[in-house]
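Consider the tokenized backbone below.
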């Protein structure tokens, strides 16, 4: 009898073990669903789903349709379907990851009879989802529903406490809290702190002319534009970092080479002028030259020269050295510009002759 019980224990399969046994799981994530608005959000992501975190889930997508039907959806060979339909959003699809997704299943998560989201698991190859895997995902979805619903309700309360009801942006209380924290850290560690103010031109005239209802619409539109821009930039950076890390390293290498070339150029120019500066002095001159580039043109046409003159005088050198250094840099710019125009003329000359 003991041997039979021991044998049965060895044959028991936990949900996570069944998933691991059936195939290698490429990605899994929960989707939060709002039945009233028939919209949802990708709450977290890993693998091919990582770039989709915090993305919208539309009603016509596969995940949205599954949540509305409140019935599981399974497909063992997903390549063809994902070329015609989108898993999350009508616009984004799987953001480049769908080509790696061979199979997936979606199980709605319910709380008190209402669909609050879905658990999605994907595999990198076509997989038989009818044996151990699909029931295991269903068990995980049922267990996760209670924990996620509690966590999401708590998150909703916390977000409501620090969010403006009209615009969806953070409210004054959250601003005061964050501002106090940032200023405290800045004072403790001596780091600089910045506060960006955004002013809406003629907003008062909009309220006075068209009424507060139209003014509220303007505020909501501006807030939505700001949030869409921030989320889109974050999503693109996550996708780039995950899918093309080599490109990021190449960019960092190019930036380092550019800085090295600029430092060497200024050092060589100063030696040409007869100055032998220290490493710290050279760093200050390079920083002064770089800061001048941030000034808007054409009002900053003399910013480079003024910045270099100020830097050289601050280091105890004559202002003429700063002016001479600026003229050398301008001479280099003009020389490269003329060479570029000459090469462009030589390249385009055959095309002009043919025309």
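A designed sequence for it:
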């Amino acid at each position: 009898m003991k041997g039979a019980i021991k044998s049965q224990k060895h044959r028991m399969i936990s949900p996570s073990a069944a998933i691991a046994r059936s195939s290698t799981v490429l990605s899994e994530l929960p989707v939060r669903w709002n039945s009233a608005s028939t919209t949802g959000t990708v709450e977290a992501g890993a693998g091919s789903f990582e770039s989709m975190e915090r993305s919208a889930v539309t009603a016509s997508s596969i995940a949205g349709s599954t949540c509305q039907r409140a019935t599981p959806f399974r497909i063992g060979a997903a390549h063809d379907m994902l070329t015609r339909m989108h898993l999350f959003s009508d616009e984004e699809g799987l953001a480049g990851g769908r080509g790696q997704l061979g199979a997936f299943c979606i199980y709605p998560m319910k709380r008190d009879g209402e669909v609050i989201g879905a658990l999605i698991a994907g595999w990198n190859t076509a997989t038989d989802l009818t044996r151990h895997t699909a029931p295991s995902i269903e068990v995980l979805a049922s267990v996760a529903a209670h924990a996620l619903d509690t966590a999401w309700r708590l998150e909703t309360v916390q977000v409501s406490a620090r969010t403006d009801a009209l615009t969806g942006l953070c409210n004054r209380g959250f601003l005061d809290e964050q501002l106090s924290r940032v200023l405290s850290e800045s004072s403790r560690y001596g780091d600089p702190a910045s506060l960006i103010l955004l002013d809406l031109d003629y907003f008062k005239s909009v309220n006075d002319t068209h009424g507060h209802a139209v003014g509220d619409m303007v505020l909501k539109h501006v807030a939505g534009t700001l949030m869409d821009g921030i989320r889109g930039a974050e999503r693109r950076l996550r996708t780039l970092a995950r899918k093309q890390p080599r490109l990021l390293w190449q960019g960092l290498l190019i930036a380092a080479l550019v800085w090295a070339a600029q430092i060497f150029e200024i050092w060589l120019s100063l030696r040409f002028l007869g100055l032998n500066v220290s490493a710290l002095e050279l760093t200050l001159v390079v920083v002064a030259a770089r800061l001048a580039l941030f000034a808007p043109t054409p009002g900053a046409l003399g910013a480079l020269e003024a910045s270099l003159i100020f830097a050289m005088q601050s280091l105890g050198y004559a202002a003429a050295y700063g002016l001479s250094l600026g003229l050398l840099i301008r001479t280099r710019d003009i020389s490269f510009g003329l060479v570029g125009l000459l090469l462009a003329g030589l390249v385009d000359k055959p095309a002009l002759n043919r025309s």
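The chain has twelve helices and six strands.
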